[in-house]
């Protein structure tokens, strides 16, 4: 179970990083599309929440 949670946590963290970089690149290129920026921000926050939940589950399984 710990291995599966570790892999899922890694995937969620890299997905968060990818969405964050996509948003940063959009800002750096000067794209004024506010709807896209808001959508990326929502995805980033959601993925961060998923990552945090997976981290807590991993810590709980390691403790027991």
From TrEMBL:
- Signal peptide from the UniProt entry: none
Keywords, ordered alphabetically: Membrane, Transmembrane, Transmembrane helix
Answer whether the UniProt record assigns the keyword Membrane to this protein. yes
Show where the HIG1 domain sits.
Answer: 1-64
Task: Please list every transmembrane segment annotated in the UniProt record, as residue ranges.
Answer: 40-60
Among Pfam families, the record links this protein to: HIG_1_N (PF04588)
Q: Which domain of life is it from?
A: Bacteria
Q: Which NCBIfam families match?
A: twin_helix (NF033233)
UniProt-recorded name of the protein: HIG1 domain-containing protein
Source organism (scientific name): Teichococcus aestuarii
């Amino acid at each position: 179970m710990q291995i599966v949670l570790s892999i899922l946590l890694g995937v969620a963290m890299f997905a968060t990083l990818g969405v964050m970089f996509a948003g940063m690149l959009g800002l750096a290129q000067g794209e004024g599309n506010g709807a896209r920026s808001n959508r990326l921000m929502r995805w980033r926050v959601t993925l961060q929440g998923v990552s945090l939940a997976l981290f807590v589950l991993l810590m709980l399984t390691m403790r027991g």
